[in-house]
Amino acid sequence: MKRSGNRGADSLRPVSIERGIQLNADASVLIKMGNTHVICGLTIEEKVPPFLEGRGQGWITAEYGVLPCATNGRYKRETNGRSGRSSEIQRLIGRSLRMMVDLKTIGERTLRVDCDVLNADGGTRTASITGGALAIRDGLKKLVAQGKLAELPKILPVAAISAGIVDGVPVLDLDYPEDSAAEADANFVMSGDGRWIEIQATAEGEPFQQDEFLQVMALASKGITELLGLWD
């Protein structure tokens, strides 16, 4: 099969990050994976949700949205609450980012990551996790620099990628045309020490075999290992 950019089945799209893209955020990262571009802006709030008050621990959460001109045809703004898709994605992002630190080490404060999709070409949720994790690390460093944390907590790097089966071939980092045509697609979240945080996999045409899934998972592991290089 021929892929955009003539990349191989096991190749990521071109990846880049830019920090400090939002001047008023406590930390921000613009992550680009091919034509998927996501801004991940961090706000640090000196409070926690009511269910955590007085428990001596913090919270990490996320919101996710797609800007109107990010897709082919205008994407309608979600002004009356999040859609089911957006709610599911932001819960995934929040769960993944909470794996990064022991919440008891960040004090009673909330780290809120807003993930806004500027351009959508597949893999927006996984790009949001990868960029959001980098923003969280930068935000924690800021708390230390401000003297609000005595020391930097132990941080577990986190990154995510999509993979799937297209035209019978396991491929890494699906763009939108590939995702739309895939016989199976999956999203993988992995920690820096090689442990899996979450796996979402769906057959679109017919059920896939276990050996096919293992090939897709191996591709995801390879891709995430490369993305973890952004932490250097």
TrEMBL record:
InterPro entries in the record: ExoRNase_PH_dom1 (IPR001247), ExoRNase_PH_dom2 (IPR015847), ExoRNase_PH_dom2_sf (IPR036345), PNPase/RNase_PH_dom_sf (IPR027408), Ribosomal_Su5_D2-typ_SF (IPR020568), RNase_PH (IPR050080), RNase_PH_bac-type (IPR002381), RNase_PH_CS (IPR018336)
A biological-process GO annotation: rRNA 3'-end processing
Chain sites annotated for binding phosphate: 85, 123-125
Catalytic reaction list: tRNA(n+1) + phosphate = tRNA(n) + a ribonucleoside 5'-diphosphate
A molecular function GO annotation: tRNA nucleotidyltransferase activity
UniProt KW Hydrolase keyword: no
Keywords assigned by UniProt, alphabetized: Nucleotidyltransferase, RNA-binding, rRNA processing, Transferase, tRNA processing, tRNA-binding
Domain of life: Bacteria
Top-level EC class as recorded in UniProt: transferase
Listed EC numbers: 2.7.7.56
Domain Exoribonuclease phosphorolytic, chain residue ranges per copy: 12-138, 157-223
Record PANTHER family: EXOSOME COMPLEX COMPONENT (PTHR11953), EXOSOME COMPLEX COMPONENT RRP41 (PTHR11953:SF0)
Subunit structure: Homohexameric ring arranged as a trimer of dimers.
Summary of the function given for this chain in its UniProt record: Phosphorolytic 3'-5' exoribonuclease that plays an important role in tRNA 3'-end maturation. Removes nucleotide residues following the 3'-CCA terminus of tRNAs; can also add nucleotides to the ends of RNA molecules by using nucleoside diphosphates as substrates, but this may not be physiologically important. Probably plays a role in initiation of 16S rRNA degradation (leading to ribosome degradation) during starvation.
Family according to the record: Belongs to the RNase PH family.
Protein name per its UniProtKB record: Ribonuclease PH
Source organism per UniProt: Desulfopila aestuarii DSM 18488
Phylogenetic placement of the source organism: Bacteria, Pseudomonadati, Thermodesulfobacteriota, Desulfobulbia, Desulfobulbales
